[in-house]
């Protein structure tokens, strides 16, 4: 493993970490095999944002006798309501789920306490104003139940504000070639000197896209960047009209090349995917070369579901991410397995009331209602 400092924390973390979202519905033996293979390969940073008790219990089992060898990022504000993932800004509810995480992992502290999924100015104010979850996080840290404070999000201005606040040690942010080159997501260029509290002479007069400016700001403030969604939910591996298809190694290479990135946390649902990520460590320069992205600077991913379920909770309990993933697979090829996976869903797309709650919460601009209609057309219900 190759190690980098986790920003101003001074802690050494492996450049390849582990994201846990695809393990939420996997059995305990799968979770254990993935975690153990990752840690045996030198992984010592795991992000665990899910609030469901099953996955927390499974990680507790996987980390038995290994807890001290890994940094765990847990999220404050990720809860379950009615059996669905949900964001909460309620201190009592959020604290209850944080203490639940400690119990299920059989630990008395979390290494990086993430303020979970902060996306809008009003949400930021709720988190950072007196009495908000930031105050709770600081209290938890003072009690010794957390070592460092971080924030997760997808919005550049909000993330930049958090980085420049002085409270944040770690920022978890989606970094991949598609998002960084997407015209719709590029804010009009602004001089770095106008957005950085502390100017770096070598870059202060440059004009750069907002996402790159955020990365530079993290470097200036010595805030560690943890790169999530390095594969864009696998979209970068798919065939496309430009014939540009990236490998896991190239995606990790891209993310790790950006300013301030300490580690990348690819989501791995089995041991084979862990091996694919760890293969970066022994890959040749040629295998790491991601220059082909310049041949296709517009990946056109805005509006495409990343299956992250940040759109939940759904008022009628549709598992939107899983349902959309199945429908997308059906768009490539239909099979009995695809049909069975859809039929196994407890709530089908036809239950959608078109309330719009999901589209308001989606950080990727996905037309969820249109996806529900598409699923109904494909599967008939």
Number of strands: 14
The average pLDDT score comes to: 87
Helix content, binned percent: 25-40%
CATH superfamily of the largest domain: NADP-dependent oxidoreductase domain
- Span of the ends, CA to CA: 48 Å
CATH secondary-structure class of the largest domain: Alpha Beta
Q: pLDDT below 50 for ≥5 consecutive residues: which ranges?
A: 183-208, 297-301
Strand fraction equals 5-15%
Shape: globular
Spatial order of the strands forming the largest sheet? 3-4-5-8-9-10-13-14
Helix count from the secondary structure assignment: 15
Q: Can you tell me the number of structural domains?
A: 2
Explain the layout of strands and helices.
Elements: E1 3-5, E2 12-14, E3 18-19, H1 28-40, E4 45-48, H2 53-62, E5 71-76, E6 78-81, E7 84-87, H3 91-105, E8 110-115, H4 121-128, H5 133-142, E9 146-152, H6 156-163, E10 170-174, H7 177-180, E11 190-191, E12 207-208, H8 210-221, E13 224-228, H9 248-256, E14 261-264, H10 271-278, H11 285-288, H12 320-332, H13 336-343, H14 357-361, H15 368-379
Parallel strand pairs: 3-4, 4-5, 5-8, 8-9, 9-10, 10-13, 13-14
Antiparallel strand pairs: 1-2, 6-7, 11-12
Helix pairs in contact: 1-2, 1-10, 2-3, 6-8, 12-13, 12-15
How would you characterize this protein structure?
This protein is an alpha/beta fold. It has two domains: 3-295, Alpha-Beta Barrel (TIM Barrel); 320-379, no CATH class. 36% of the residues lie in helices and 15% in strands. It is built from 15 helices and 14 strands. An eight-stranded parallel β-sheet has the order 3-4-5-8-9-10-13-14. Strands 1-2 form a two-stranded antiparallel ribbon. The protein has a two-stranded antiparallel sheet with strand order 6-7. Strand 6 and strand 7 form a beta hairpin. The protein starts with a strand and ends with a helix. Mean pLDDT is 87; it is low at 183-208 and 297-301.
């Amino acid at each position: 493993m190759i190690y980098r400092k986790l920003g101003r924390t001074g802690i050494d973390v492996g450049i390849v970490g582990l994201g846990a979202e695809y393990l939420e519905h996997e059995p305990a033996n799968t979770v254990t095999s993935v975690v153990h293979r990752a840690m045996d390969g030198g992984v010592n940073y795991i992000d665990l944002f899910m609030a469901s008790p099953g996955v927390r219990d499974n990680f507790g089992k996987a980390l038995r006798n290994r807890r001290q060898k890994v940094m765990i990022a847990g999220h404050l504000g990720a809860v379950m309501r009615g059996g669905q993932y949900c964001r909460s800004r309620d201190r009592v509810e959020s604290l209850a789920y944080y203490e639940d995480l400690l119990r299920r992992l059989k630990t008395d502290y979390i290494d990086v306490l993430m303020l979970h999924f902060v996306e809008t100015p009003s949400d930021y104010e709720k988190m950072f104003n007196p009495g908000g979850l930031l105050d709770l996080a600081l209290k938890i840290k003072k009690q010794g139940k957390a070592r460092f404070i971080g924030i997760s999000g997808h919005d550049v201005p909000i993330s930049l504000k958090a980085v420049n606040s002085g409270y944040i040690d770690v920022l978890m942010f989606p970094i991949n070639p598609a998002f960084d080159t997407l015209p719709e997501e590029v804010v009009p260029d602004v001089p770095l000197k106008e957005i950085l509290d502390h100017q770096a002479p070598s870059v202060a007069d440059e004009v750069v896209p907002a996402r790159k400016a955020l990365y530079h700001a993290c470097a200036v403030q010595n805030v560690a960047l943890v790169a999530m969604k390095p594969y864009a939910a696998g979209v970068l591996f798919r065939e496309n009209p430009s014939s540009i298809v990236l490998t896991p190694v190239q995606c990790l290479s891209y993310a790790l090349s950006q300013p301030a990135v300490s580690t990348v946390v690819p989501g791995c649902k089995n041991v084979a995917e862990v091996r694919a990520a760890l293969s970066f460590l022994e890959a040749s320069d040629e295998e790491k070369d991601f220059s082909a992205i310049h041949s296709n600077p517009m990946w056109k991913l805005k509006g495409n579901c990343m299956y992250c379920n940040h759109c939940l909770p759904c008022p009628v309990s549709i598992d939107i991410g899983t349902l959309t993933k199945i429908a997308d697979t059906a768009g490539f090829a239909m099979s009995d397995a695809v049909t069975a996976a859809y039929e196994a869903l407890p709530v089908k797309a036809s239950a959608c009331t078109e309330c719009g709650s999901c589209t308001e919460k989606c950080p990727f601009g996905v037309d969820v209602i249109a996806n529900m209609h598409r699923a109904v057309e494909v599967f008939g219900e």
